[in-house]
Amino acid sequence: MLSNIIHAALEENHFSLIDKGELTQYYIRENGESVRFSILHQMEKLPSPEELNIEITQNAPKSFLNNSAFRKNCDLICIVKLKSLSDFKTIEDAIFSIEEDPYHYKKYVLYYSASEEEITNNLSYTDIIKTISDKQKFDEYKSDPLAPSIYSIAAKIFIKLPFLQLPFKKRELVPLKIQAQEAVDNSELTTQYELIQRDLEIQTLIETLVNHELENISN
To answer: pTM, whole model, 2 decimals?
Structure first.
C-alpha cells in the first residue's frame, strides 16, 4: 500500500512517528534546534482546503499544536485512490486547489490507481529507490506514462515530495574527451574520428584568421 511506502520513506529520512489515527499519522524530525513536521493523511474523498486544514489541526497532538514551528514548517502528504490514472483529469482542479492553498501546511497530494495499488502491495521503499535509478524502467515509463508501473509510483513520490533525499551513487568523473575516445575505439571509428578532429582544428584556425582580418579592416 502506498501509505506504507511513504511511512518507510519518512522513517528513512529520519522522521519519527509520534501519533497515529485511523487515517492520519503525525511525524517529527529533530536535528539540534531544527524541527520539521510531517503528516501522512489517507483521503477517502477530496475535501476543500478549509475542511482539510480543520480536520488535520483538530486531530494533531497537543505537542505539535504548542510548537510555534508546526504550521509553518509542516508537510501534509495526502493520499487519494483513483479508479484509473486517467481519472486524474476529473479531479485535477481539486488537487491543485489543495496544493496551492497558502494557509497552514505545505500540502502535497499523491494519487494512485487501483492497478497501481496491486503493484504497491509487494513493494518496499527500497524497491522504489532502486527503481528511480533504473534507466530501462524510466524509458518504459516515458513511452507510456499512464500505464501502471513501479516507475510511475516512484516518480510521483520523488516529484511530489521534494524533501525526500534522492538516491545517488558516488563515482569518479571521467572527462568527456576520454569518454568520447573510448566510444570511438569501441565502435572502431578511430580513423574517422581523427579526420573529424583534424577538420575541426582547420576550421577553428580559419575562423581565427578571418576574425583577425576583420578586426584589421575595422581599424
So the answer is: 0.72
